[in-house]
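If you are new to this repository, start here. Below is one unmodified record pulled from the training split, so you can see the exact layout before writing a loader.
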Amino acid sequence: MANTRERLIELIGLDEPSVELVSTDAIEHSTYAVETLRLRIGDAEVRGILTRPLHPSGPLPAILYAHSHGGGYAIGATELLDGREYLVDPLGPVFAHAGYVTLAIDMPVFGERSNVSESAAAKALLWMGKSLFGQMLSEQAAALTYLASRDDVDASRLGAFGISMGSTLSYWLAAMDPRIKAVAHLCCFADQRTMIELGAHDGHGIYMMVPGLLAETDAGAIAALIAPRPQLVCIGEADSLTPPLAVQRAWAELEPAYAASPQNLQLVSEPGIGHQETPTSRFAMLAFFARHL
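And here is the target side for that same chain:
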């Protein structure tokens, strides 16, 4: 398993950059607080949005929130506060009310970093033998380091969450980084070879292209690296990014990894549901983190 993880890290090009807090600006609402952070991640200054309970009684569990894509390049980390059309409602306040410190950062080409197109950024990195997805995952790892360093966070109770692009960022990072103790991901778990077979792979952005990946592994085997740590997978059976056959094949690779701890693996599969969070998946996700963090 360790060799598989090390090989995945090599393929992705996971190379966590340094991280330091440059500044923070906090606003207190009636029941929770919002911090707008400036983080120095490697050579880049990156905006972070953080939500937390107002008056914590001690170090709290924390969630690294990976924002989605959806063509909303100008949105980025503000998804935590403003939500998206495929979310039930914004999750930042919800997580704060449930007792979590939650951090989202602008991924490259999103939010305050959307002055460069996804295509231009991905092509430049591919020419240099790297990938945009590798950069995103490396920066998420740095954000996790910052989150774990906070006085109000219990670094032994770190979770990860995301929908769509954020889903893949969350479970791939959890596969490579054992600091993540529990991960919940929505709307993007599918065998990629099958996606190609079905002609469904072009629904993904170019950010996700990692050269040589499918010669060695696929989504189910990547998610299996998380075992025995708790994992929640939520999919809609009418979602073009999670076709039933592709989910079935990915699950067939994932499920055996939890043979010794089946209670730590959960699938929510909803008939007739497309690329969206639902009240059912929201309830399952909050219950999942309450059990495991």
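Two things worth knowing about this chain: Residues 2-292 form a domain with the Rossmann fold fold (CATH 3.40.50.1820). The chain has a mean pLDDT of 97.
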